[in-house]
């Protein structure tokens, strides 16, 4: 699982593994790859001269099996977590 750093910052000798690399590793090991986007984004913000933030679609396209993000922060309204991705994983008991 890869988690967005929306509420914290890591400093020093750090690095981030790409979604593509994590997807490849998860497939090798036979485990689902889940990526949490924090607030998430549905549109490419660069069109508004804002920094790039991976969209939900970008993350799925990079190989995530499941993507989680905050519905209330992204869309407004009551608190809501949203999960998108492979149906068989979402429907699992």
Poorly predicted runs are none
Mean pLDDT: 88
Write the H/E string, N to C.
EHEHEHEH
N-to-C span: 19 Å
Strand content: 15-25%
Most strands sheet: 4 strands, mixed
Shape: globular
Structural class by SSE content: alpha/beta
Radius of gyration: 14 Å
User: How many DSSP-defined strands?
Assistant: 4
Relative helix content: 25-40%
Helical run tally: 4
**Major β-sheet strand ordering:** 1-2-3-4
How would you portray this structure in words?
The chain has helices at 19-29, 56-61, 71-75, 87-90, and strands spanning 2-3, 34-36, 66-70, 81-85. It is α/β, with parallel strands linked by helices and 93 residues long. The chain has a 4-stranded mixed beta sheet with strand order 1-2-3-4. Helix 2 links the parallel strand 2 (34-36) and strand 3 (66-70). The longest helix has 11 residues, at 19-29. The chain is globular. It starts with a strand and ends with a helix. The mean pLDDT is 88.
Features:
4 helices; alpha/beta; 28% helix; 93 residues
List the helices and strands and how they pair.
Elements: E1 2-3, H1 19-29, E2 34-36, H2 56-61, E3 66-70, H3 71-75, E4 81-85, H4 87-90
Parallel strand pairs: 1-2, 2-3
Antiparallel strand pairs: 3-4
Brief summary of the model shown:
This protein is an alpha/beta fold and 93 residues long. Helix content is 28%, strand content 16%.
């Amino acid at each position: 699982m890869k988690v967005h750093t929306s509420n914290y910052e890591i400093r020093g000798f750090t690095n981030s593994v790409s979604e593509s690399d994590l997807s490849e590793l998860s497939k090798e090991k036979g485990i689902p790859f889940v990526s949490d986007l924090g607030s998430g984004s549905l549109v490419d913000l660069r069109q508004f001269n804002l920094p790039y933030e991976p969209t939900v679609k970008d993350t799925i396209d990079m190989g995530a099996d499941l993507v989680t993000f905050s519905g209330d922060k992204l869309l407004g309204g009551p608190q809501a977590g949203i999960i998108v991705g492979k149906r068989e994983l979402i429907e699992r008991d």
